[in-house]
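Lab meeting prep.
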Amino acid sequence: MPRATASLLCALPLTLGPAAPLLAALPPFAAPAAPLVAALPLAPPPDDAPLWERAGAQARDGFGSLLVVVGDVDGDGHPDVLAGCPAPFGGRMGAVRLLSGADGRVLLEASSRVPDDRFGASVDLAGDIDRDGTIDVLVGCPLDAASDVRSGSVSLVSGKTGSELRRLPGTRAFGEFGRGVAGVGDLDGDGAPEIVVSEPGPAPAARAGGAPGRVLCLSSAEEGGIVWQQRGASAEERFGACLARLPDLDGDGIDDLAVGAPGARPAAEVTGRVLVLSGADGRLLWNTFGFEPGRFGSRLAPAGDIDGDGSCDLLVGDPDALVDGLPAGRAWLLSGFDGALLRGFAAPQAGGRFGSALAGLGDIDGDEGPDLAIGAPADAAGGYAAGRVRVFSGRSGELLREVLGSASSAGFGAALAGLGDLDADGTDELLVGLLDLGGPQAEPGAVRALRGKSLPAPSAAPPPTPPAAPATPATDGGR
């Protein structure tokens, strides 16, 4: 049976026969009774209050762990947000929610009918697959067991009706097909956009001897088919464990793809690697190995054009990187043109999983250049695993802002995104995901929109991170 999906443009209940609604419309507000006393004007919220906050539906459903800013779906002039809720804890249904970027209202909600398939682990816009004039959506389900093994799948969801247009199943047992998804437009001129899907293979590195991970570009047409594919060097490197779409880097008019292979081992030790592939044909544009032992490429995000060369640069995270022998996390900024190291970012303390979330932002500090946000959701400065988000200048690497989670186990900073200037004050806002609102028992996660202009300065700012050393990373490919 097709998995439940939801319309991106319609918030009316959608049902299949007698089943419960797949898309629950928000209840209308009841007309209020006449007031007994005249209402006093409401005071504006304080400057440091969030612009809005949206809590999840239930504890431990993964709400707040994945945020993708999309276009203006509800027509209010602001971009909206897809939030994946992949339900990482056993026995729960994954979900995808569309939130209004303006105020956080739930415009729609869709969930899987099958528990534990990680529906919503990846999301992206797909283009108009069914040619009805509406942009459709990709949803990754990397542990879907449709073929009696958890091979994974990708759901193609109608943006107009909410129906599942097609489900593309994986074919490898525990291959995690759908770990990453991206739309790249119509490459072959048949009127149907192509989609890119990553299939990194089984997570345990000990499964030696299996097939390497791969990234496939697939036709969304009824007959399907592979347009191009790239394979990793070995099963252990988990080629495709992370996938990020980048604005066109090679000048062919097609978005390109950054691919993480965090288990890559160029010599005696695992360092991880990151590759950038042409979205048009899968050609290797460049390839960079990690700079130290670790799992470089575990997280990826476009950073904007930091160095002013006309190419979108790339943020790379390794939340498990060791610092002085302790797991702390690191992040790096790479040139989008050739993969050269532009700057590194160190964790504020051990154990915080710094680099778990990455985002390129607009201009926060008024220097007319893009800035960067990095999350450390297990950081303990505000309480056990309360989390921390740091905002850095893209141009200088200076630490500009720092926000601490305020509740134990909140996981503040689990996901990040730039949201544009919602309040028209000239500064872009920051969208932050947290895994738990905090409390004596497990609470739902949340998504919080913070005013960029009101983000607090760090209490004790470290010196700016130095630019890259003259030594360049090991690369190949190029243009």
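Slide two material, second protein:
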Amino acid sequence: MTHRLSFIAISTLGILACGQPRMLHRNDGGIDHAGTDTPADEQSSPDAAGERTDTGVADAGSDRADVAPGPDGSMGGASGTGGAGGVDGGRDGSGTGGSTGVGGSTGAGGSTGTGGSSPVCSPPCAASAYCSAGTCKSRLTEFTIPGTSADASDIVLGPDGNLWFTDAIGSIGRITPLGDIVEFVIPTPSSNPIGITAGSDGNVWFTEVANKIGVITPSGTIIDYTIPTASSMPEGIVLGPDGNLWFVEHNSNLIGIATPSGAITERTIPTAFSGPADIALGPDGNLWFTEYSANQIGRITPSGTVTEFPVLTAGASPYFITAGPDGNLWFSEANGNKIGRITPAGAITEFTVPTAASNPAGITAGPDGNVWFTETRGNHIAQITPAGIITEYTVSSPGGITTGPDRNLWFTEANGQKIGRFVPP
């Protein structure tokens, strides 16, 4: 991932335009990291399969692949129907179901079929794979961004059920759960988009190092609005509880607020030169943000009251932040090589990332009740439980990360010009 703090701000005028799709890319299932190109239907793990039951009759269904594999990577067995009944009345001397006989025994009823079961993988799959229909499949699939160059940064689930990402080359990208990618060029020259979030208006909003806030409709129409303070270098952005877009201004030391109509106001952060980097909506209805340079976590109420909390590790450089599934805020420490947790009351706990100098960056609430984050230099995406247990999985130069509509993890790969999809355990 290109380090978000390394961009140079350029001030330009706001423009209304329809973003031009750079090219439509169909990537059928992406790259299967088990070593072969695999079609999309084989990348998925069926959740309802027409498998023959252990002792009963096969159900009427057939093996079905979902759009993307489920987070458990397993195949739910379909319930089998009852086994065929035995001969009624057998040899009972009545001539029914057999020849006349003396004291013929009654035919036994057929056995009842058991519920369907999933074929197991033997030997068991490695941690980097999951079992689907008896076959180990890679948890990781990568989709190449079209064009000759790309620098994907942040990613978010959009209101339309697709994933949207910023491409610092000057585009906003959209990828469907199937892996179809299209990019829309931002009309402002040298826009360098960074942060991205879903708005309350059904659109996607993003920040531009070119000192603007942009909005893109699902059809690709782009409008951008100039930030009042010049060379502010906006970065993280999030939808606030008031329906407005809240964003941080790294250079100007301000919190910006943009209405859906594009009117922008700004609030000052008490600590000078704090270098705010990212912002998230907390479970308490307040906005929480990282102060990369001041080594603090800030909280701002919708009315504008700011409270700051020092990070425990000196020089940790708190970077990305997200609301966790446990009611706390979780943040990455780029230089501290830790993941931090802060309660709504301001109590901070830190957990060391196993890989040294990993440069933890993007962070999101996962579909499994845990928090997931990226390690830009460590080349991992990692899971951290509410208790602080960290498990790492190897990928390439990940940056932003989010949970998709398929309950998988989606992340950007700046160096590889790709979007990655990871099936969690």
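Talking points for slide two:
Helices lie at 40-43.
The longest strand covers residues 152-157.
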